[in-house]
Structures are given as structure tokens and as C-alpha cells.
Amino acid sequence: MIARVRAGEPEAYAELVRAHTGIALRAAAALGAGSDAEDVVQQAFVKAYCALGRFRDDMAFRPWLLSIVANETRNTVRAAVRRTTLAGREAALVEAEPVIPESADPAVATLESERRGALAAALEKLSEEHRLVVTYRYLLEMDERRPPRPWAGPGAR
User: Residues 86-111: what's their mean pLDDT?
Assistant: First the structure.
């Protein structure tokens, strides 16, 4: 099939796309692309087509494509994280906090607000990986004894 694509047969690449779109979409979704999964997969197919000259004939197409999908997903997720501002994260934290009753001491309310701001600033300084760990464990109160199973790649069980 790759030889047909390299020979300039456009229908051959369309067949590859049809054959691998489902698994590519599942991989992008599993890796965190969310609502961007279709865009990630489309971009991955474009990149794969442009890189076919470097594709080795002794390789299988599916794992090669899925590595491109994984890279595109990672890039998309990173870009989304960069677009999320500190103010947006702080607003999300504030919305998640219970409303302080009017009867509460204003000094206590001010202190809590300052602590939330300091927490958001401290989280911003952490690497993405460490920020996720702290968020999962302390803000979402997830149990560290049973971490989520990492995605091991296509075909993994």
C-alpha cells in the first residue's frame, strides 16, 4: 500500500486513512486529546503523508502512525495547557471552593483568599507532571496507592 502511495496513487493513501482512522481516534482520545481528537488525527495523517519518504519499508504502518498521533496529542495538550492562564486556573479553584458565609470573620476570609492565590502561584511553578500529581492527590483527594494505569500503547491490554 505504501508503495502505491509513493507511486502517486492518491486512492491508496485514502485507503490507509480509512483503515486506520478508528484506532487513531481511540489512541488520541485515550492520550487526552478530548474534543480535539479529530483535529489531532487529521494533523497526524497529514504529517504521516509528508513523512512517507522517511518511512522504512520494513516497518509496520500502524505503530508508526500511532507514534505520530501520540506526538500530535502531546503537542495539542501542551498547547492547551499553555493557553490556560494562571487567572483561569485560579478562577476554577475559586469556583470549586465553597462560598464563605457572610457571618465568617473577614480576616479569615482574606487569609483563605491569600492562601488560594499562593497555592495557585506555587502550582504554576511546578513542572506539568508534578502539578498533576499534587492536583490529583491534594486538590482532588485521589488515593496515591492506586494510581491510574498508564496507557501502554496500541494493542496493550
Answer: 64
CA angle 19, 45, 39 (to 5 degrees): 105
Closest CA to 93 of 76, 110, 111, 118: 118
Residue carrying C-alpha cell 522504512: 56
Torsion of CA 53, 59, 63, 66, to 10 degrees: 0
Neighbours of 40 (CB within 10 A): 28
**Structure confidence at residue 83 as a pLDDT band (50, 70, 90):** low
Lowest mean pLDDT among 40-49, 69-78, 122-131: 122-131
Q: What gap in Å lies between CA 155 and CA 150, rounded to an integer? A: 13
The pTM of the full predicted model, rounded to 2 decimals, is: 0.53
* Cα–Cα distance for residue pair 29/7, rounded to 1 Å: 33
Question: Per-residue pLDDT averaged across 46-57, rounded?
Answer: 88
Identify whether the C-beta of residue 18 lies closer than 8 Å to the C-beta of residue 45: no
Q: How many CB atoms lie within 10 A of CB 61?
A: 16
Angle subtended by helix axes 106-125 and 86-96, to nearest 10: 140
The set of cell numbers assigned to 98 is: 465553597
